Amino acid sequence: MVIVMKPDAPREVIEKIEKKMQSLGCQVHLSQGENYVLLGLVGDTRKINPSQIEANEYVDKLLKVQQSFKLANRTFHPEDTVIDVEGHTIGGDHVAVIAGPCSVESEEQLMTIARSVKQSGAAFLRGGAFKPRTSPYSFQGLQEEGLKLLQQAKAATGMPIVTEVMCQDTFDVVEQYGDILQIGAHNMQNFALLKRAGKSRKPILLKRGMSATVEELLMSAEYIMAEGNQQVILCERGIRTFETYTRNTLDLSAVLAIKALSHLPVIVDPSHACGKWEMVEPLSKAAVAVGAHGLMIEVHHQPESALSDGAQSLKPHKFQRLMDSIKKMG
Amino acid sequence: MVIVMKPDAPREVIEKIEKKMQSLGCQVHLSQGENYVLLGLVGDTRKINPSQIEANEYVDKLLKVQQSFKLANRTFHPEDTVIDVEGHTIGGDHVAVIAGPCSVESEEQLMTIARSVKQSGAAFLRGGAFKPRTSPYSFQGLQEEGLKLLQQAKAATGMPIVTEVMCQDTFDVVEQYGDILQIGAHNMQNFALLKRAGKSRKPILLKRGMSATVEELLMSAEYIMAEGNQQVILCERGIRTFETYTRNTLDLSAVLAIKALSHLPVIVDPSHACGKWEMVEPLSKAAVAVGAHGLMIEVHHQPESALSDGAQSLKPHKFQRLMDSIKKMG
Amino acid sequence: MVIVMKPDAPREVIEKIEKKMQSLGCQVHLSQGENYVLLGLVGDTRKINPSQIEANEYVDKLLKVQQSFKLANRTFHPEDTVIDVEGHTIGGDHVAVIAGPCSVESEEQLMTIARSVKQSGAAFLRGGAFKPRTSPYSFQGLQEEGLKLLQQAKAATGMPIVTEVMCQDTFDVVEQYGDILQIGAHNMQNFALLKRAGKSRKPILLKRGMSATVEELLMSAEYIMAEGNQQVILCERGIRTFETYTRNTLDLSAVLAIKALSHLPVIVDPSHACGKWEMVEPLSKAAVAVGAHGLMIEVHHQPESALSDGAQSLKPHKFQRLMDSIKKMG
Amino acid sequence: MVIVMKPDAPREVIEKIEKKMQSLGCQVHLSQGENYVLLGLVGDTRKINPSQIEANEYVDKLLKVQQSFKLANRTFHPEDTVIDVEGHTIGGDHVAVIAGPCSVESEEQLMTIARSVKQSGAAFLRGGAFKPRTSPYSFQGLQEEGLKLLQQAKAATGMPIVTEVMCQDTFDVVEQYGDILQIGAHNMQNFALLKRAGKSRKPILLKRGMSATVEELLMSAEYIMAEGNQQVILCERGIRTFETYTRNTLDLSAVLAIKALSHLPVIVDPSHACGKWEMVEPLSKAAVAVGAHGLMIEVHHQPESALSDGAQSLKPHKFQRLMDSIKKMG
Asked: Where in this chain does the record put each DAHP synthase ferredoxin-like domain (chains A, B, C, D) (predicted)?
């Protein structure tokens, strides 16, 4: 951390800050410039409350040197984390594919799609039972009934289940049925939910918030890890930009940033990012080319009747073509 | 709603969509252009699932005509809503001021600040007991102990309490002590929390998410209202932009937008918006000039020791000056 | 400037950088942390090319301490700049009002509006003769004929003319007729145009780019000033955000940021910011409340026939009401 | 175009608008809803000035149906445009690679890099002679001397030259030496420059502005094409987002959007997008995977001495590796 003092900061204020920082366990190096004074802090800066320093009227600004996340930080954990769910892994050198409908709608719908994506080579089955919707008047999911159908689909296909946890109250029931618990973009900074996820023994799939930075995503992962659950998978799913042609804007450089900053695996959800089925295959190829550890793809056999996200769902034969494309790249 | 069909859409596909829309209770008017066909829908469009229409490969796009919020919509409720808490009102023609520390830290701290802001003319006391923090390693609030101190401050000053509800698990306890329950920016789309707030009898102060549009804010208010709680106060607290000089960017035109679109009262939090105490007074005056129904201001007698948000907290004499400025405008 | 070295930076690389910086005239202070090394640079850092330092694979990042603008910087020029055009001033304690139509359309249109805004108390007349339009098929302005009409309106009313310079080729002719030369938001980083403006003896009204930071705006002012023209007026005119209810989002805290960082006067254009005439008066009051040195307002006596920006133009009697409101605040 | 009237719009106002639209050559279809009236317009809507309609106080909003660009629009020109420069093409099925230094610095520098990228398989040589810099104190390029060096490099290697045109004044000289004339992101809406480019016979490489939408980029292409120059190549080079780890955020879905909306070729500049050399190769592979028609890559043999953009320049052997990776994908 570097404290930049204003040009008119009196010597005694600077000395007071130096002593305060030293008392918190830091070493302080002062550099006297013509128009400012720099205080370079090294040592254990964790006890420093930046807000208290910034509240000093002679402090111009603070410059942060280190990332605030520790457990998620590659610096302190150089090796890649690989998540293993009943022999299916996410992380390392292969591309793990999670596929399935946006929402679980019925037994027939789910079983049809599950069998189809299994045959095309997906490793995990996705499907929403509790749905976070921006309108209270939209379909909110089949809830526990949906979870039971997912369990049935798992029994039939062997694919572990990825499904969303929306809140504390329904966490237990989702945890009981799901194999990987997804925290959605709207909940990336729902700190109570993150803490609850940190107490689970199931891996957590944490999606990046629509306007979140990579560092904020990693701070949210840190919340989970600080409670004891080290099995966190990150997911880039598009960010909000001024572009209106796509639903969101897929940020593939975030995959590279996450891999540089953290040891956690990172996957890509092109379906939500673009919102248009015709873009899903080329964006999936791009995600693989950039080095993502996996893909999460929405598939529906009848998009025009889907209760949610029909416009971005691939029909089964198009998902098959996507899987073929990915394999060719490998 | 208007459906724009692609130039090459076959007649039978168009007719099928027309019939589907009619079966859902809409009237459909077709306009045949050279390069597209428009289907104008009127009547009850609520049963339409836009995603299913967009999933049709011959549909170019949907154009939305009406806002999705109903209960919060001024069209259907032309008169201003005024919230009354034990005789203190928010809404209408006066400016309600909520003031107090970011976090409740101790009895002495809270009582000192509460007495001071009361004397300067604040109507409501703010103070956080459960704190949503981006780092798991930051101070998380005094929790129930903090709520008890707020109760004590209310007893001493007569000011109703505004305090944050962070999650379902701790909602009951916060609801017991608080008079107005605040939902923070990070939780604006925490739908489970919104539903729980909708079941409360306490007024809800709903803050705009950092990258949310005004329509999204009103949709979140709709979630609360759809559960039965019509007492919602909206709060503009700064949005994320590319500007780095301020913590966020205060969007005062949002106050005008909200007042045009909704009957709900809207207040402004300049402290979080700018993050710098020296900007709080002029931005407060601007908020009043633009027609906000209230202000929410962070005050601390010792900002350099504050456990959170010291840099944006006003000292009591500066808060007094702010209140004097506001009165002069009146 | 502070250079943050990576944890694994070899001693000889650090020493080489230290020597390089010293040879460029800086003093270097090294702080050895556990996970990084900080090099604090003081002295004359202008000769340092940040890109060359960042190209070193052992450099983690650079932290900038000082603003890059010098001539526009309040640190080196503490007193407010006041621009004087034939006795009408911008800067200091009063609010200078610039008003008129978006585009000059005809003699009758311009003279009607000019006389009206003059009577309501505007000090300067605005009107576009060369119009930057996003579509090549839109009205591009009356060009030199428009400038001649502006001259005629000035002769009739005594109001100095504010009009836009769009490019190098037409700069001379606009400079001949205009009293204050406006550089539009799209051209804020048209560096060739900024340099040409720097050679003019007329004051320049520089509008903030739609996604520009305050620092970038001041760097563009610096371009003008570095060529010799110190008469620069800055203008906040709304930034692009995710909000769609308004055309852009007026950033009033930018006025405070500019006044803190620079000695140059700063005015506000609420018409372009919101794009809706009904918001112009309240936003103007807010701009005055926050301390803007002036306002720029679009006025048209027949908005429904205006060739551009009809939706945001005030009718004369509404402009009169705005002027009355502002005066009451004074 | 669809006009949405407010609920309280009097019949005579609606009829007046209908007649006005018909007089401009449109057909109007009215749909009467409970809370609004829709006027669907088909036919030739080009003569309509949206601003005049929006200025009507009974108009709620306009909904745009068609894109405003015509010449750049794939609807009216279904086949891909391929640009041919002395036998080297951009467009179609192969990946055209443009490589070279950010700035031309010296004969030795340019010839070294030019020979190297030629040998690695680049088809075009890039190099800046006139440099748009955000600071007036930064290196502004070697100007005409730089152009002569580029000519010399072309003579030695056979690679056509891609170089930037910054302004009207220096357009002629750049046009004389360059084979493809680049318009930079800052100038995407410098309309005077676009018009001048439209009169050139050289192909124009138009970069997307930092906060521009794809539609705005295509409108700028339209400016060039409307003046007669149909040879426009578009370039995605990263947009401004809240992410700070990278310089900008590469938007690869924009490549797909452009290919869907327009017949013009589109290339990707990963170097400027990310600002970090270590990301250039994986992002290049992703750009190829998504279907870009070409790449533009910054290469420097001594990045630590580069006068600009050292941090994002690839050393020659890393550029060779990039070319090898791309070929393998092919």
From this structure: 1-67
Round the CA-based radius of gyration of chain A to a whole number and report it: 23
Whether the per-residue pLDDT at B121 is higher than 90: the answer is: yes
Whether A101 is covered by a domain: the verdict is yes
Tell me: do D144 and D185 sit in the same domain: yes
Number of CB atoms found within 10 A of residue C154's CB: 19
Measured in angstroms, the CA of A212 and the nearest CA of chain B are apart by 9
3-class secondary structure, A242: coil
Residues A219 and A314 both lie in one domain: yes
Return d(Cα B223, Cα B68) in angstroms, integer.
Answer: 11
Q: Are A313 and B55 in contact (CB < 8 Å)?
A: yes
| Residue D266 confidence (pLDDT) above 90 | yes
What are the residues of chain D with a beta carbon less than 8 Å away from any beta carbon of chain A?
211-215, 239, 241-246, 249-254, 256-257, 260-261, 273-274, 278-279, 282-283, 285-291, 329
Closest CA to B329 of B292, B278, B279: B292
Beta strands in chain C (DSSP E): 2-5, 26-32, 37-43, 59-63, 83-85, 88-90, 96-100, 124-126, 161-164, 180-183, 204-207, 232-236, 266-268, 294-298
- For A136, the domain range is 74-329
User: Which residues share a beta bridge with B207?
Assistant: B235
Note whether B38 contacts D65, CB cutoff 8 Å.
yes
Quote the tokens at residue C192: 């060739």
pLDDT of residue C183: 98
Give the nearest partner residue to A38 out of C4, C32, C42, using CB atoms: C42
| pLDDT tens-digit map of A85-131 | 999 999 999 999 999 999 999 999 999 999 999 999 999 999 999 99
pLDDT in tens, C50-83: 889 999 989 998 998 888 899 999 999 999 999 9
pLDDT of residue C66: 84
| Phi then psi dihedrals of residue B59, to 5 deg | -90, 125
> Which pair of tokens denotes residue D81?
């445009």
What value does the mean pLDDT of chain B take? 95
Question: C27 and A30 in contact by Cβ < 8 A?
Answer: no
Q: What residues contact B262, with CB distance under 8 A and at least 6 apart?
A: B69, B72, B73, B74, B218, B221, B234
Residues in chain A predicted with pLDDT less than 50, given as ranges, are: none
Inter-chain CB proximity A286 and D252 less than 8 Å: yes
Q: Which amino acid is at C52?
A: Q
Secondary structure (3-state) at D108: helix
> CB-CB: which of B222, B223, B306 is closest to A55?
B306
Contact between chains at A54 and B311 (C-beta distance less than 8 A)? yes
B251 interaction partners in chain C (CB closer than 8 Å): 241, 243, 249-250
Same-domain status, C21 and C137: no
A222/B136 CB distance under 8 A: yes
Q: How many domains is chain A partitioned into structurally?
A: 2
Read off the pLDDT of residues D82-112 as tens digits, 9 standing for 90 and up.
999 999 999 999 999 999 999 999 999 999 9
When pLDDT is cut at 50, 70 and 90, the band that residue C211 belongs to is: very high
Q: Are the beta carbons of C29 and A30 separated by less than 8 Å?
A: yes
Task: Reply yes or no on whether the pLDDT at D120 is more than 90.
Answer: yes
CA–CA separation, A57 vs A60, rounded Å? Answer: 8
What is the value of ipTM here, to two decimals? 0.96
Q: Same domain, yes or no, for C206 and C128?
A: yes
Instruction: Give the 3-state secondary structure of residue B232.
Output: strand
Q: Is residue B68 part of a domain?
A: no
- CB contacts of B273 in chain C (<8 Å) are 253
- Which of C42, C63, C84 corresponds to the end of one domain? C63
Chain C residues touching A4 at Cβ < 8 A: 65
Q: What is the pLDDT of residue A181?
A: 98
Q: Residue B30: which CATH number?
A: 3.30.70.1140
Q: Between chains, do B136 and A226 touch, taking CB under 8 Å as contact?
A: yes
